[in-house]
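Sat 14:20. Reprocessing the chain from the morning session after the first attempt stalled halfway. Input below, unchanged.
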Amino acid sequence: MAIRDIIKPDNPILRKKAHKVTNFGADFQKLVDDMVETMIAAPGVGLAAPQVAIPQRLIVVRLPDDEDSKQEYGDQAGVVYVVANPEIIKASREMVEGVEACLSIPGYFGKVDRHESITLRGLDRNGKEFRLKAKGWQARVFQHEIDHLDGRLYIDIASEVWREDEETESAEDQPVPSPE
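Finished this time. Tokens:
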């Protein structure tokens, strides 16, 4: 396993639609392992293959497993999800605003509306189809990572974006990293 470099918005791969995963062989398995290691080391709760410059429809998600997280997320805390070709097949009508950040846009945060709960379909690391229901923060993380597979960043849909060391300002007034 190896920690991979996480690319920034100036890399055009982040803005392109990723390709479906069709091969689940040794190279894919190494990519999965590297992505999990990279996500944990960053540290982050989700990572999409385009963020490590691989234009494939692959995401990994892992909610924290500290004591507070175990109380809040229960049996979902610390579970690593590997999802190839994820697709949201059902989403709640209820939308929830929350604060998001991104490993590809370090130092920035934004307020983003997301579905409170989702059902997604995808393939596990061995190519076997499965479905998963997610709600709350876990649903937010999956939606954020799936957006990466379509070349969309949270700053594209945020109502406000700000730098870590500044007060909240409207998205129009705040300099945000450009994709160009």
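The radius of gyration is 16 Å.
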